[in-house]
Design goal:
mainly alpha; two-stranded antiparallel sheet
């Protein structure tokens, strides 16, 4: 910020002679506007892409009419919701009802402040970046619980309570999984974590040792639960709660919840890319100069490609896996992910002591083996349990 301010207000700068405090305020406003615009565009396009992927996977039609093969469907949806009446139930707590969607949206948008996009391309590179993200995203549970309670609807209240139980619970394994990377990087800064990795896959933290490989899957699972994505969409649960915490909402307030969910997919993907997948590290280096700052184009593109790949996997899982029951959801968190995350922390400490400069390729192969064992274990716990449960229900329905 200081370098950019000096470049703009210094001799020959575009804003030479301007008050520096005013320039800093204008720069912050411009950056916030850019982030809001990118988040809005990303959320809109992702909503279309998700429905198209769902159509492909489930052999049904997706958006295909508005402009080129339905690409502008999100603009039509936005205009439709803007024109809808904003209905507030008579018995609702009106102030809380009105503000709840904006708290959820603010929690999502504030987290973008410390998300890196490339080398020297980050809104705010603070030394507690990942801790800041975990802190501000916790506002989501406040907004969702507020929306459910203020609606004065029993289904909405149940959805809000479920959200509180789910999101608060899964913050623990996600934080513990992130701690394994923090121990290796020695920093909470997002850019410093990326700098501790290399461009090649065997130089990423995901393949550093078996415990970070498992932490990757724990973090990914926990972020799905914190983002209310299937199979962890218990707070919504349309089939049992008639949309849950947002049942009484309409118009743009209703859309704000899903807008935040779609934009939050970039937050989830960027966190995974930063912590485990090497971030913007690139084997090539093509730089351009912008406002006195040197930007690595290849790093920006590589980071975006990794994040979009993770986003695709998140969407893919939504239209593949069935929803968990509440007891299964909490059991997975407290009986499996949290204890394993604690073991991972101890394992990373021992690995760092006894193998400080071990063979990275061997470590990656061992990590892949442990990850395969872990995935088989999750499959046994979750999928097989669901199949057995469905079989019991079908047998009970036979007259």
């Amino acid at each position: 910020m200081q370098e950019l301010t000096g470049f703009l207000t210094g001799p020959g700068g575009v804003l030479a002679g301007w008050n520096e405090s005013l320039v800093v305020f204008l720069i912050m406003g411009a950056i916030a506007s850019i982030i809001l615009g990118y988040a809005s565009l990303y959320a809109g396009v992702t909503s279309v892409v998700e429905r198209k992927i769902a159509g492909r996977m489930q052999s049904r039609l997706g958006p295909n009419k508005v402009w080129i093969k339905g690409l502008f469907q999100f603009l039509a949806d936005g205009l439709k919701n803007i024109q809808k009446e904003d209905i507030i139930p008579d018995e609702a707590d009106k102030p809380l009802f009105r503000i709840a969607p904006y708290i959820v949206f603010a929690g999502m948008l504030m987290s973008w402040a410390t998300l890196p996009f490339g080398f020297n391309l980050i809104p705010a590179d603070i030394n507690i970046g990942i801790l800041y993200i975990f802190a501000v995203t916790s506002l989501n549970v406040v907004g969702i619980l507020m929306a459910g309670w203020a609606s004065n609807n029993k289904w909405s209240t149940i959805g809000g309570i479920r959200a509180a139980a789910q999101i608060v619970s899964y913050e623990i394994p996600s934080g513990l999984a992130a701690l394994t990377v923090i121990l290796l990087a020695g920093s909470l800064s997002m850019q410093s974590i990326i700098s501790g990795q290399g461009a090649m896959p065997w130089e990423w933290y995901i393949s550093h040792n078996p415990f970070t490989m498992i932490s990757f899957f724990i973090m990914f699972t926990s972020l799905l639960a914190e983002g209310n994505r299937t199979p962890f969409d218990i707070p919504e649960a349309e089939s049992e709660l008639v949309s849950g915490y947002n049942t009484e909402y309409s118009g743009m307030r209703f859309l704000m919840f899903f807008f935040a969910e779609w934009a939050n997919m970039w937050v989830m993907s960027a966190i995974m890319t930063t912590l485990f997948l090497g971030g913007w590290q690139s084997p090539w280096n093509i730089q351009v100069s912008l406002l006195g700052q040197s930007l690595e184009v290849t790093g920006i593109l590589i980071f975006a490609a990794k994040a979009l790949l993770v986003t695709f996997i998140i969407i893919w899982l939504r239209w593949t896996l069935p929803r968990l029951r509440v007891d299964q959801l909490m059991t997975l968190c407290w009986k499996y992910l949290t204890p394993i995350a604690f073991v991972n922390i101890v394992g990373v400490l021992f690995w760092s002591v006894y193998f400080p400069k071990g063979n990275q390729i061997v470590a990656m192969l061992i990590s892949a083996f442990f990850a395969l064992v872990f995935l088989v274990f999750l499959y046994k716990v979750v999928v097989v349990n669901l199949i057995q449960m469905k079989a019991k229900i079908d047998l009970n329905m036979i007259p």
